[in-house]
Design a protein that fits this description.
The chain has helices at 11-19, 56-59, 68-80, 91-103, 117-132, 149-154, 185-198, 224-234, 256-259, 287-295, 308-323, 326-347, 378-384, 388-398, 420-433, and strands at 35-39, 42-45, 50-53, 108-114, 136-140, 170-173, 203-208, 238-242, 266-269, 281-286, 351-357, 360-365, 401-402, 404-406, 409-412. It is α/β, with parallel strands linked by helices and 438 residues long. A 7-stranded mixed β-sheet has the order 4-10-9-8-7-5-6, sandwiched between helices. Strand 7 (203-208), helix 8 (224-234) and strand 8 (238-242) form a beta-alpha-beta unit. It starts with 10 loop residues before the first helix and ends in a 5-residue tail after the last helix. Bound molecules: pyridoxal-5'-phosphate. GO terms for molecular function: pyridoxal phosphate binding; transaminase activity. InterPro entries: Aminotrans_3, Aminotrans_3_PPA_site, PyrdxlP-dep_Trfase, PyrdxlP-dep_Trfase_major, PyrdxlP-dep_Trfase_small. This is Taurine---2-oxoglutarate transaminase.
Length: 438
């Protein structure tokens, strides 16, 4: 993989660097690496280097890089009818709505379609406001909900700072972060209860990732999410679960909410919805909320809402999860991954914590295991784009494993098709890479 120095860029990488404005990046420091091929859990760069994809790219390639059923469905739909205006329908859109009603819990039954996670969140915020007639949204500090104006305002992590003061009424609460926070996870819930009481009857929704993703893979205690739903409802607020990263088998259940037996009022999803074969977002609501919009207009929509090709990819992806038993498989392989991460924790003093559920796990690094002191600060990371955890991830790349990282945590979210032997290969690469932080 290129280290980013200008001399090493091939023609495509040079064109990309000159003409594409990168996301979240500093143009002078970040150089693109051209990827030319993907097969199963592996992908290959233009120099022929092969990598195990231990993070499913941006925690979205849940089906790996050669799910032929999905690619074929995309080609067929594009050949038949690629696009119709949202006031028409297609078999693909109707069948995907039906499938989502089938795989989501409880009485979640109707879906508003968009094209990304951030749009799924925007729709959820507006639906909650229209339905409750209230304006505020409570979300948590260690969270990411998207980059557009509303969704970045309800995001808690430092990526929100550049967009502040942001959307009015976006209030932040503490998190269930047992390893690094001074507040016990269940205590943090009672704090939220008090916050809602003090806000009076003005909060439309409480928005959480049931298992926090890019902010460090935080799994709350079993009782947390059921109690949060109770607290939200006691104060007349809806519970929105953001399943954009945790959904579609990542946790060993269809959705992160299923791990805790909770049906939220609104569920948002994207990423694994098509296994990243097409951009698609979805906001699924309960029967009651859907009924409200029989009489009242949902003043929201996009040209590409329910795009036929993306919906065809979604149907084929869900059929693949079902027919290849990928959800159960993620639960089983997840146990193996958990044991192998524990081996890394035993071997490396810089591994402070390994945590997660299913194939959704994190390795949090520390420079002082007893005091749990993090490497660098969040603000440093945002300002400079480089900390020890970046160096560990880069070293893993040198050993043939791609792993995403954020703040002090390596984020492990491979395709659900990964085998134990492939996990072993990736763990060997991390074992070598962690020498950098020890
Ligand atoms: N919500 C969560 C939990 C996410 O992890 C993300 C993206 O990583 C988003 C929302 C935003 O999704 P997108 O990047 O598709 O807009």
């Amino acid at each position: 993989m290129s280290d980013g120095s200008a001399a090493e860029l091939n023609e495509i990488e040079r064109l990309d660097k000159d003409h594409v404005l990168g996301t979240w990046s500093y143009q002078s420091e970040v150089s693109p690496t051209q990827i030319v091929d993907g097969d199963g859990v592996r992908f290959t760069d233009a120099d022929g280097n092969e990598f195990i994809d231990f993070s499913g790219q941006l925690m979205c390639s849940n089906l790996g890089h050669s799910a032929s059923r999905v690619s074929e469905a995309i080609a067929e739909q594009a050949a038949d009818v690629p696009y119709v205006a949202p006031n028409y329908t297609t078999e693909a859109r109707a069948r995907l709505g039906e499938k989502l009603a089938e795989v989501t819990p409880g009485n979640l039954s109707k879906t508003f379609f968009s094209t990304s996670g951030t749009e799924a969140i925007e729709a959820a915020i507006k639906i909650a406001k229209f339905y409750t007639g209230k304006d505020k949204v409570v979300s948590r500090y260690r969270s990411y909900h998207g980059a557009t104006y509303g969704s970045i305002s309800v995001t808690g992590d430092p990526r929100r700072l550049a967009a502040e003061p942001g959307m009015p009424g976006a209030i932040k609460a503490p998190d269930p972060y047992a390893y690094g926070s001074t507040m016990d996870p269940m205590e943090s819930l009672e704090y939220i209860d008090e916050m809602l009481m003090l806000e009076g009857d003005t909060v439309a929704a409480v928005l959480v990732e049931p298992v926090v993703g890019s902010n460090g893979i935080l799994v709350p205690p079993e009782e947390y999410l059921p109690r949060l739903k109770e607290i939200a409802h006691d104060h007349g607020a809806l519970l929105i679960c953001d399943e954009v990263m945790a959904g579609f088998g990542r946790t060993g259940e269809w959705f992160g909410s299923d791990v805790f037996g909770v049906t939220p009022d609104i569920m948002t999803m994207a990423k694994g919805l098509t296994g990243a074969y097409q951009p698609l977002g979805a906001t699924v609501v309960t029967d009651e909320i859907a009924a409200h919009f029989e009489d009242e207009m949902l003043t929201h929509g996009h040209t590409y809402a329910g795009h036929a090709v993306a919906c065809a990819a979604g149907v084929a992806a869900i059929e693949t999860y079902q027919e290849e038993n990928l959800i159960e498989r993620a639960s089983e392989t997840g146990e193996y991954l958990e044991a192998r991460l524990a081996d890394l924790a035993d071997a490396h003093p810089s591994v402070g914590d390994t945590r997660g559920v299913g194939l959704f796990r994190g390795i949090e690094l520390t420079k002082h295991p007893e005091k749990r002191v993090p490497f660098g600060e969040r603000a440093d990371k945002l300002a400079k784009g480089s900390t020890v955890v970046d160096e560990v991830a880069a070293a893993a790349g040198e050993h043939g494993t791609y792993v995403a990282n954020m703040i002090n945590t390596l984020i492990i979210a491979p395709p659900l098709t990964i085998t134990e032997a492939e996990i072993d290969e990736a763990i060997d690469a991390l074992d070598a890479a962690l020498e950098v932080s020890d």
